[in-house]
Amino acid sequence: MRIDLNVIQEWIAPASRVLDLGCGDGELLEQLQKNKDVVGYGLEIDAQQIHRCVQRGVNVVEQNLDAGLTNFADASFDTVVMTQALQTLRHPHLVVGEMLRVGRDCIITFPNFGQWKARWHLAFSGRMPVSDLLPFEWYDTPNIHFCTFRDFEVLCGQNDWTILHRQVVSESKLGVVFKDFLPNLFGETAIYHLTR
């Protein structure tokens, strides 16, 4: 399981109602159902991922997040989760606002484009970075909004969203040592827990 998904499990209360946006193959919801006894639903647009969710026994609805969450009433869920999808949305700030409308709180993870490897790659190769976490070339990437930890915290401040928890994770040796001292430079993935 990805390291950010392990952190998220710690932040979700047992027996809560969870909506997972861009739930992928349903791995997180499956684990939350087993370990936390949550009632969970996933939203996903990819047909193959939806099929995998069904195989796992995860409730999933086919839905494009860029179309909004108008089919959900206010405060329908305790927690709304979105992992590694923020950068793919046409209007990410509107989707986060919707997450905080339909949920009491939300948890978001995204890749940090301020990380030193991305800076180094762009500065010295003159090309957009490609990594294990972001394995796409510039012409076929689904990632259309690149942001850093600092960018995201500015967005939170502009919208009066309260940060309950924040954590950065890294799988590289250098990142593991320095991520807590210089998170914008050494953190690979940001994990934020927000409320209004």
Description:
This protein has 196 residues and is α/β, with parallel strands linked by helices. It has 8 helices and 7 strands. The longest helix is centred in the middle third of the chain and has 11 residues, at 92-102. It is globular and about 45 Å long. It comes from Microbulbifer variabilis.
What's the structural blueprint in terms of helices and strands?
Blueprint: H1 3-11, E1 17-21, H2 27-36, E2 39-44, H3 47-56, E3 59-62, E4 77-83, H4 92-102, E5 103-111, H5 116-125, H6 149-158, E6 162-169, H7 173-178, H8 183-186, E7 189-195
Describe this protein with a few key phrases.
single chain, 196 residues, alpha/beta, 7-stranded mixed β-sheet, 23% strand
Net shape: globular
Task: Please report which band the strand proportion falls in: under 5%, 5-15%, 15-25%, 25-35%, 35-45% or over 45%.
Answer: 15-25%
The N- and C-terminal alpha carbons lie at a distance of 29 Å
Q: Could you tell me the number of beta strands?
A: 7
InterPro entries: Methionine_synth_MetW, SAM-dependent_MTases_sf
Protein name: Methionine biosynthesis protein MetW
Organism: Microbulbifer variabilis
Pfam families: MetW
